[in-house]
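Hi support team,

I submitted a single chain yesterday and got back a structure, but I'm not sure I'm reading the C-alpha coordinate output correctly. Could someone confirm the output below corresponds to the sequence I sent? I've pasted both exactly as they appear in my results page.

Thanks,
R.
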Amino acid sequence: MPEVLLVDGIRWGSVGPLLFISLAIMGSPGPATISLMAAGSAYGVRRSLSYLIGIIVGTTIVLLAVATGITAALLAVPAIGSILVWISVAYILWLAYHIATAPPLSEPTAASSTVSVAGGTFLGIANPKAWVAIAAVFGSGHLADDTTTDAAAKIAVLTAMIIAICAIWLVAGTSIAPLLRDSGRARVVNAALAVALVGATAIAVLH
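Hi R., thanks for writing in. Yes, this is the structure output for that exact sequence:
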Protein backbone atom coordinates (compact mmCIF):
# COMPACT_ATOMS: atom_id res chain seq x y z
CA MET A 1 0.00 0.00 0.00
CA PRO A 2 1.57 3.32 -1.06
CA GLU A 3 2.31 5.99 1.56
CA VAL A 4 -0.11 8.87 1.79
CA LEU A 5 1.48 12.03 0.39
CA LEU A 6 0.12 15.34 1.61
CA VAL A 7 1.34 18.93 1.71
CA ASP A 8 3.81 19.16 -1.15
CA GLY A 9 4.77 15.50 -1.16
CA ILE A 10 5.63 14.99 2.51
CA ARG A 11 5.45 11.34 3.53
CA TRP A 12 3.52 11.58 6.78
CA GLY A 13 3.89 7.88 7.41
CA SER A 14 7.61 8.45 7.90
CA VAL A 15 7.16 11.20 10.50
CA GLY A 16 6.34 8.76 13.31
CA PRO A 17 9.54 6.72 12.95
CA LEU A 18 11.59 9.93 12.74
CA LEU A 19 10.01 11.19 15.97
CA PHE A 20 10.77 7.90 17.71
CA ILE A 21 14.38 7.84 16.51
CA SER A 22 14.94 11.49 17.49
CA LEU A 23 13.51 10.87 20.95
CA ALA A 24 15.74 7.84 21.47
CA ILE A 25 18.96 9.41 20.16
CA MET A 26 18.61 13.15 20.76
CA GLY A 27 16.67 12.74 24.00
CA SER A 28 19.19 10.46 25.68
CA PRO A 29 21.44 11.85 28.45
CA GLY A 30 24.20 14.15 27.26
CA PRO A 31 25.93 17.41 28.26
CA ALA A 32 23.01 19.64 27.24
CA THR A 33 20.19 17.50 28.64
CA ILE A 34 21.95 16.76 31.93
CA SER A 35 22.82 20.43 32.34
CA LEU A 36 19.16 21.36 31.82
CA MET A 37 18.07 18.88 34.48
CA ALA A 38 20.73 20.19 36.83
CA ALA A 39 19.73 23.79 36.17
CA GLY A 40 16.07 22.97 36.79
CA SER A 41 16.84 21.27 40.09
CA ALA A 42 19.34 23.86 41.32
CA TYR A 43 17.61 27.06 40.18
CA GLY A 44 14.03 26.13 39.26
CA VAL A 45 12.30 26.47 35.90
CA ARG A 46 11.67 30.21 35.98
CA ARG A 47 15.28 31.19 36.65
CA SER A 48 16.51 28.65 34.08
CA LEU A 49 14.26 29.71 31.18
CA SER A 50 16.98 31.84 29.62
CA TYR A 51 19.34 28.85 29.66
CA LEU A 52 16.61 26.66 28.11
CA ILE A 53 16.14 29.18 25.31
CA GLY A 54 19.89 29.26 24.72
CA ILE A 55 20.20 25.48 24.53
CA ILE A 56 17.28 25.33 22.06
CA VAL A 57 18.81 28.08 19.90
CA GLY A 58 22.27 26.50 19.94
CA THR A 59 20.98 23.00 19.16
CA THR A 60 18.79 24.34 16.37
CA ILE A 61 21.85 26.02 14.86
CA VAL A 62 23.53 22.60 14.85
CA LEU A 63 20.45 21.16 13.13
CA LEU A 64 20.61 23.85 10.43
CA ALA A 65 24.34 23.22 9.99
CA VAL A 66 23.67 19.51 9.47
CA ALA A 67 20.77 20.20 7.09
CA THR A 68 22.75 22.61 4.92
CA GLY A 69 25.91 20.53 4.77
CA ILE A 70 28.02 22.91 6.85
CA THR A 71 28.90 19.98 9.12
CA ALA A 72 30.94 18.36 6.35
CA ALA A 73 32.87 21.59 5.79
CA LEU A 74 33.65 21.91 9.51
CA LEU A 75 34.80 18.31 9.73
CA ALA A 76 37.26 19.08 6.94
CA VAL A 77 39.04 21.39 9.41
CA PRO A 78 39.59 19.20 12.51
CA ALA A 79 41.17 22.06 14.46
CA ILE A 80 37.86 23.93 14.53
CA GLY A 81 36.06 20.96 16.07
CA SER A 82 38.80 20.44 18.64
CA ILE A 83 38.73 24.08 19.71
CA LEU A 84 34.94 24.02 20.12
CA VAL A 85 35.07 20.79 22.11
CA TRP A 86 37.69 22.00 24.59
CA ILE A 87 36.04 25.38 25.07
CA SER A 88 32.79 23.49 25.66
CA VAL A 89 34.51 21.25 28.22
CA ALA A 90 35.84 24.32 30.04
CA TYR A 91 32.37 25.89 30.11
CA ILE A 92 30.78 22.66 31.35
CA LEU A 93 33.33 22.33 34.15
CA TRP A 94 32.57 25.94 35.16
CA LEU A 95 28.83 25.23 35.02
CA ALA A 96 29.23 21.98 36.99
CA TYR A 97 31.11 23.86 39.72
CA HIS A 98 28.32 26.43 40.07
CA ILE A 99 25.66 23.71 40.12
CA ALA A 100 27.56 21.72 42.75
CA THR A 101 27.87 24.80 44.95
CA ALA A 102 24.37 26.19 44.37
CA PRO A 103 22.51 27.00 47.62
CA PRO A 104 19.17 25.36 48.53
CA LEU A 105 16.17 26.62 46.54
CA SER A 106 14.79 28.14 49.72
CA GLU A 107 17.65 30.64 49.61
CA PRO A 108 17.44 33.38 46.96
CA THR A 109 20.18 33.23 44.35
CA ALA A 110 20.76 34.81 40.97
CA ALA A 111 21.14 32.22 38.25
CA SER A 112 21.40 34.64 35.32
CA SER A 113 25.20 34.75 35.27
CA THR A 114 25.49 30.97 35.43
CA VAL A 115 22.66 29.67 33.23
CA SER A 116 22.25 32.40 30.64
CA VAL A 117 21.02 32.55 27.04
CA ALA A 118 24.59 33.04 25.83
CA GLY A 119 25.92 30.12 27.87
CA GLY A 120 23.12 27.83 26.73
CA THR A 121 23.57 28.83 23.09
CA PHE A 122 27.29 28.19 23.25
CA LEU A 123 26.88 24.79 24.88
CA GLY A 124 24.17 23.87 22.35
CA ILE A 125 26.57 24.62 19.49
CA ALA A 126 29.73 23.16 21.04
CA ASN A 127 28.01 20.05 22.46
CA PRO A 128 29.80 17.16 20.67
CA LYS A 129 26.87 14.79 21.22
CA ALA A 130 24.47 17.15 19.42
CA TRP A 131 26.44 17.03 16.16
CA VAL A 132 26.66 13.25 16.13
CA ALA A 133 23.07 12.62 17.28
CA ILE A 134 21.43 15.14 14.94
CA ALA A 135 23.48 13.95 11.96
CA ALA A 136 22.45 10.36 12.69
CA VAL A 137 18.76 11.27 13.04
CA PHE A 138 18.74 13.57 10.02
CA GLY A 139 20.13 10.84 7.78
CA SER A 140 17.95 8.05 9.21
CA GLY A 141 15.13 8.38 6.68
CA HIS A 142 13.31 10.54 4.16
CA LEU A 143 10.13 12.56 4.58
CA ALA A 144 9.91 13.53 0.92
CA ASP A 145 11.42 12.63 -2.44
CA ASP A 146 12.40 16.21 -3.19
CA THR A 147 15.65 17.08 -1.39
CA THR A 148 14.63 20.60 -0.42
CA THR A 149 11.21 19.52 0.83
CA ASP A 150 12.76 16.63 2.73
CA ALA A 151 15.26 18.93 4.47
CA ALA A 152 12.61 21.54 5.30
CA ALA A 153 10.26 18.91 6.74
CA LYS A 154 13.01 17.37 8.86
CA ILE A 155 14.07 20.79 10.16
CA ALA A 156 10.47 21.53 11.20
CA VAL A 157 9.96 18.14 12.89
CA LEU A 158 13.33 18.04 14.62
CA THR A 159 13.11 21.65 15.80
CA ALA A 160 9.83 20.77 17.53
CA MET A 161 11.54 17.72 19.08
CA ILE A 162 14.47 19.84 20.28
CA ILE A 163 12.07 22.19 22.04
CA ALA A 164 10.08 19.33 23.59
CA ILE A 165 13.12 17.29 24.69
CA CYS A 166 14.90 20.27 26.25
CA ALA A 167 11.77 21.42 28.08
CA ILE A 168 11.12 17.92 29.43
CA TRP A 169 14.66 17.62 30.82
CA LEU A 170 14.42 21.04 32.47
CA VAL A 171 11.05 20.25 34.05
CA ALA A 172 12.34 16.82 35.12
CA GLY A 173 14.93 18.61 37.21
CA THR A 174 12.20 20.21 39.26
CA SER A 175 10.95 16.77 40.33
CA ILE A 176 13.92 16.53 42.69
CA ALA A 177 13.70 20.18 43.72
CA PRO A 178 12.01 19.36 47.07
CA LEU A 179 15.22 17.56 48.06
CA LEU A 180 17.13 20.78 47.53
CA ARG A 181 15.32 22.80 50.18
CA ASP A 182 17.41 21.11 52.84
CA SER A 183 21.00 22.33 52.77
CA GLY A 184 22.54 18.90 53.45
CA ARG A 185 20.57 17.06 50.80
CA ALA A 186 20.97 19.97 48.37
CA ARG A 187 24.74 19.66 48.49
CA VAL A 188 24.59 15.90 47.84
CA VAL A 189 22.08 16.14 44.96
CA ASN A 190 23.76 19.12 43.32
CA ALA A 191 27.17 17.44 43.57
CA ALA A 192 25.74 14.24 42.03
CA LEU A 193 24.24 16.18 39.14
CA ALA A 194 27.50 18.05 38.61
CA VAL A 195 29.39 14.75 38.46
CA ALA A 196 26.78 13.35 36.02
CA LEU A 197 27.20 16.44 33.84
CA VAL A 198 30.99 16.04 33.74
CA GLY A 199 30.63 12.30 33.11
CA ALA A 200 28.19 12.79 30.24
CA THR A 201 30.56 15.32 28.72
CA ALA A 202 33.54 12.98 29.03
CA ILE A 203 31.60 10.19 27.30
CA ALA A 204 30.52 12.55 24.49
CA VAL A 205 34.07 13.81 23.95
CA LEU A 206 35.64 10.34 23.99
CA HIS A 207 33.12 9.08 21.43
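A quick pointer for reading it: Residues 5-206 form one domain. Let us know if anything else looks off.

Best,
Support desk
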